[in-house]
Amino acid sequence: MRGTRVLLAGAASLALMLTACTTDAPEGSPDADGGNGEGNGSLAPDAEWFDQAEFDAQLAQRGMTPEGPDDEPWLQAIEPDWIDTSDFAIDDPEEATVCFSNASVSNPWRVTGFITMEQQVEALVDEGRIGDFRVSDAADDDNQQISDIQAFVDAGDCDAIIISPSTTATLTPAVETACDSGVPVIVFDRGVNSDCMVTFIHPIGGYAYGADAADFLVENLEPGSTVLALRILPGVDVLEHRWAAAQQIFGDSELEVLGFEFTGGDGAAIKDLVSQHLQRGSVDGIWMDAGDGAVAGLEAFEDAGQPYPVIAGEDELSFMRKWDEEGLTAVAPVYSNFQWRTPVIAAGMILAGEEVPSEWILPQEPIRQDELGDYLDLNSDMPSLHYAKFGGEDLPGFPEAWTDR
Amino acid sequence: MTTDTRLPDHRSPRRRSGGLLSPLRSGTGTVTVLLVLIFVVIATQNPSFFEGPPLMAFAKKAAPLVILAIGQYLVIVSGEFDLSVGSLVGAQVVIAARLIDGDEAMTFPVIGLMLLFGLLVGLVNGLVTTLLKVPSIITTLGTMLILFGAVRYWTGGAPTGALSENFRVFGRHGLDGVPLLGQLPWALVIAAVLTVGAVALMRSPYGRSLMATGDNDTAAAFSGVRVWRVRTLAFVGSSLMATVAAILIGGFAGVTAQVGQGLEFTAITAVVLGGVVLGGGRGTVVAAVLGALTVEALFTLFNQLYLPSTIQPTAQGLIIIAAVAYASRRGDLRLPERLRRRPAHPTEQPLDSSRR
């Protein structure tokens, strides 16, 4: 009897789970040859992650010509508001200590960027613009990063503090603590809810990235074609903005979005998810919020004997090499990896009392078919998980620092 | 005594009542029912799932977890845990990519090296646990962190190199042109061979010693089992299985920085879902394999239903707890009190707890 009761309870909870899911799904019953989860009707971006004014601003910034040297995009700035930093100038910058609180090196994009940053430091030390560089790595742990920043403040021997925040809201008080200590603070990559830092350095942003990818699919697919979105994780602002922009653009298009799936950036999960979608029907386009594992997704098409989709990956070389070898219809949106050079350069400028932009918006240009060959040639010795727009070709240690990891 | 009375139970459940329904009364039964239930729901969502090629695609994806579950089964049934397998899979794939670096000629030497490395990791896990008396949950947690950190240090956080096409054959390709199925994946063949091998192993004297050790290591020691050696070999088995799984996973999807992350918990989940009791001494290889298939089927089902990914771990956890609770209730019904573990032998308890 007890067994029967438990079996019934189990069946009931499973039924509950299934009905809960179908409640989430939009109107219209699932069919065998299409997806069922996310039709075009549900493509309104989540209000929490969509800011129309910011979306419009970023899309406009894509077309602006930045100030600064053409061949050094890491020094360029879009619509900069230059501010005076003479209060922070010190007499002997060659003795200065620059401290860097890194969120982590937990993915290839951050690894590539951090190597670029270290090589830039070497160049700055040689030029006598900074003296010492100290790094703490929080391994994606907010609490660890708060304590790392506090330790820099308590030690009192940092002349400038660079912070790449792990998350936005949680790190805001820690960044403000660093500002209160009186040393110049530079924030880059992800932001915080404060403007106490001297400068905030970042590429244009997630909306521009997501829109570059979505626009490409809309332009290169016939109306009525199907698109699958592959995302990494929910809840990270730069990734949510990418998807919100894509939802906005797909919603106005005649493409059918089959759904979106979170993959954790794991190639095996990506390949499995794409394979399952291919079993249920055709997939004509793939939109990704980051290109990690794009090749695994493409292999799912190979293994299923189906033609390659139109795809928006990223400037990771594994994807760009596949694009070249197979002659794909593809684009590589870029979240400019060279931005890792800019914070240490900014530290040197601030310690010399030079003006810097209060918000330093770096250019963010996707790599298109006509530039593919050039970037592959430039990076021919680099490992497959390296990012083409790392911008370190003129730095000391090139190419060994990036090839011999 | 305890061991003697219980052994026929695990070895051949069919003997008890002889009927076809008897496996349904064990943990194997629960997981089979759950697996069938999930397959039925998948079929309602995607009727083509049971045609040859989609089913083979499922098998190809599930094979590495099946193999990891077999390894984890060996360790769990001996009364221990192996938390290092996820990190080991990650390390092996990264090592393979770096050493092969796209050179076909390096494929088999590197696979040989991977097996040696797996053997070494298993030996270290086993000897530290059995000879230094470090609880296995700590030993393998340590190994997990050591491997994770060492690989990150070695590669600077992002893997380099590339796997060769020969290496990827095992996880990605198969025997083409098979009627109905289309392609018979090598991964499925390898998983099937290892399952049969593991079933045979558990019926051998070693398997009986392993089961007896997990059930009651003091009694096993008194009856002549060299407990330390039996357990160490279980860890070696687990690490070798993780190495084979790494070859298949790397082959399936290539190198990504995240490969292997969290697989130890998925493997333990699979084994427990198969009704293999934590603490050891009960459960079958087949149940562990069915548990792995169930976990993979569950992932597939979540995907078919477009279940929001944020709720997936919760749903997974609820189903697992419900299934194991159900199985253990059935276990209560199945085993009369006098046959259950923990007989009131006054000397057993302190000895036992000191080990764990």
UniProtKB/TrEMBL annotation, chain A:
Gene3D superfamilies: 3.40.50.2300
First-listed, main subcellular location of the protein, grouped into a coarse class: other
Lineage: superkingdom: Bacteria
Annotated ranges, domain Periplasmic binding protein: 100-327
InterPro entries assigned to the protein according to its UniProt record, in alphabetical order: Peripla_BP_I, SBP_2_dom
Subcellular location as annotated: Cell envelope
Chain segments carrying region Disordered: 25-45
UniProt keyword terms in alphabetical order: Signal
Signal peptide segment: 1-25
Family: Belongs to the bacterial solute-binding protein 2 family.
Record-given protein name: Substrate-binding domain-containing protein
Source lineage: Bacteria, Bacillati, Actinomycetota, Actinomycetes, Streptosporangiales
From TrEMBL, chain B:
Region (Disordered): 1-23, 337-356
InterPro entries with a match to the protein in the record: ABC_transp_permease
Subcellular location: Cell membrane
Keywords: Cell membrane, Membrane, Transmembrane, Transmembrane helix
TM spans (from-to): 20-43, 106-127, 134-154, 184-202, 233-253, 311-328
Membrane topology, from the record: Multi-pass membrane protein
One Pfam short name: BPD_transp_2
Major location category of this protein: membrane
Keyword Phosphoprotein carried by entry: no
Skewed-composition ranges (Basic and acidic residues): 1-11
Name of the protein: ABC transporter permease
